[in-house]
Each structure stands twice: as structure tokens, then as C-alpha cells.
Amino acid sequence: MTWNSTMSSGYSSLEEDSEEYFFTARTSFFKKPSGKITENKQDVEKERELRTEFSREEIRQRIEQYNMVTRDHLKMTLGPSGVYTGFIKVQLDLRRPVTVRGGQRGGGGAVVEEAFYLPRGVTNTLHISSNNTVRQVIVALLNKFTVADNPAKYALYKRCRREEQVYVCKLADGEQPLFLRLVAGPDADTLSFVLREQQTGEWDAFSIPELHNFLRILDKEEQEQRDAVIRRYEAYRQRLQEALREVRGAS
Q1: Integer Cα distance of 196 and 98 in angstroms
Q2: What stretch of H or E contains 92?
Q3: How far apart are CA 159 and CA 166, in angstroms?
Q4: Which residue from 96, 102, 218, 88 is spatially nearest to 156, judged by alpha carbons?
């Protein structure tokens, strides 16, 4: 089964666990940037040099500059404690099915889990604080879509465009996406965030039930393709038979 409809808006909060962060999720579709995508170690090292701490006054100045140039009204706010809040957009780029917790319950009251393909290219806008880490952002995204998979299977990447080249590098779990957003500014070409599967290269990270779910999806898609081919040739056969009857009737 495949989700192909626009995701509905929702609100996801982690305030019960901490007063320092919360998430608001909104979804939209946007055009993928063109250009060659590369992973450049030199680029990663350059970016690491930018990951420094700023004083409170420097943060205040940067937030003012950020809010002056942002075009989508997604502004940042500096709190009295020095913690600031703002918005980041995360694009989903998942190639494999995800295991989703369903609303129905099976035998014994257990929640039924199903495997779905999430539509690639969906963007979620998250309202977070400067204390939020990459790992917390991943967990919030998975909770938003009721994904039951282990968050460790996923990674958050940052994507930067420079001179018609697109550079992608994986973010560490402890990094703070809102700080990166503040340093880079609001331009999505300068910096954007992408959620992907971990680059394991194999399927060994998935459990046996998950793999069985994937096989069921493949079987279903194969049967749908087979039925479509049969229907197409049945239509051709009917047209040929009608044409033969017309020719015989005319003779």
C-alpha cells in the first residue's frame, strides 16, 4: 500500500518530557532542487568549522538579521533564558517502506502494524527550540506519522547548494538543527534538511516481521501489475474479435 495523499496538519508536543522544546508539524510539497548531489568530506570539514557557540548578544543580532530577511513569516524568537525558538523544514526522502501503527487492534488487543511507502518529497515544518537535537527531531517526525520503526534506522542530513553543486552530509545525533538554520539564514538553497534511512546498504537492520511486511507489499504490487496487463490484453482481444465479426458480417 502506498500513501499518495497530502498529509494533514498536526501538532506534536514534547513539553511533558522537557520544558525546553516543543514541535509543531505542518506539511507541504515543494520542488526538489536540481543539480548534482555529492557527498564531500572537504565540505563537511568546512561546515564543522562553522559549528561554534555565539554569545547571547551575537545570537540576538543574528536572530534580528534572520527575521529581517525571512520571506515565509517563520521567524525566530529569543527567550529570556537565552533559549530561542524557530522553524525548520525537513524533507522526507525515504526509499523503503515504514512500519506504521494502525488504529485497529488485533487479537489480544495488540495494535495492528502495517507497512507503507511514505510519499517522497513531503516537507514538514517543525517548530523547535535551540536545545533540540537531531535525534529529537527524528523522533518527532516519526511520531507525527505514527511510525513504529526504531529511530536509529533514520538519519537527518543537511543539503547545501554551492555553485550549481549540491552537497549532502549526515548530521550527528547531538547537533542542533535550529542553530545551523540560524547560522545559514532562511534560504533553503543555502541549507535544507532531509530525513533518510541510515546508509547501511543492506536490509539487516530490519526485523523479520518488517521484512515479511515488505514481501507482502511486493506481492500485492506484482499482482496489481499482472492484473493490469491481463486487462489490457483482454481489451485488445475484444476489439479484435469485434473487428473480425464486422469483417465476416460485411462479406
Answers
A1: 11
A2: strand 84-92
A3: 7
A4: 88
DSSP 8-state code for residue 186 = S
Task: Report the DSSP pairing between strands 165-170 and 36-38.
Answer: parallel
One-letter amino acid of 88: I
Q: What is the mean pLDDT of the chain?
A: 77
Contact 114/145 with Cβ under 8 angstroms?
A: no
**How many Cβ atoms are within 10 Å of 55's Cβ, its own excluded?**
9
Cα–Cα dist 183/48, whole Å: 12
**Which tens digits make up the pLDDT trace of 37-72?**
555 544 444 444 454 578 889 999 999 999 999 988
Q: What are the pLDDT digits (tens) for 93-142? A: 988 888 887 756 555 656 677 777 888 888 989 999 999 999 999 999 89
φ and ψ at residue 38, rounded to 5 degrees: -135, 160
What cell was used for 103? 488504529
Q: Residue 149 phi/psi, 5° resolution?
A: -65, 155
Please state, in angstroms and rounded to a whole number, the distance separating the CA atoms of residues 133 and 114. 29
- Cβ neighbours of residue 175 closer than 8 Å, sequence gap 6 or more: 51, 133, 134
For residue 178, what is its C-alpha cell?
535550529
Nearest C-alpha neighbor of 127 from the set 73, 172, 171: 73
